[in-house]
Description:
Helices cover 46% and strands 16% of the residues. The chain has helices at residues 2-12, 32-55, 67-71, and strands at 16-21, 26-29, 78-81. It has a three-stranded antiparallel sheet with strand order 2-1-3, with no helix packed on it.
Amino acid sequence: LISRQVLQQVQKTGGRFLKKDYEADIWAEVSDVIAREKVCQVLRTFVSAIKDNDSLEGDRGSNSKSEEEENDSSADEMCYIRGGGEG
C-alpha cells in the first residue's frame, strides 16, 4: 500500500523511474511493477537501517551492506527522475 502511494505521488508530480540500458546507451522508463519493487526495496532497506541503528545505538563501526543489497546488482543502475520541467 505504501509503495503504491509513493509510486502514484511520483507519477502525479511528473516523476519517472528509469533504468540504464547499457547496450543502447540510454535511460529507459521501467514498468510500474518494477518501479514498485524498487520502492519496496528502498523502504525495506530504510526500515532495516533504522532497526539496526536502534539496536546498535552505541556501536557506530558497523557499515556493512545487507545481503539483499549485495545481491542486487541493479540497485545502482536505476534512478528516479523528478519531473516538473526542472533542469
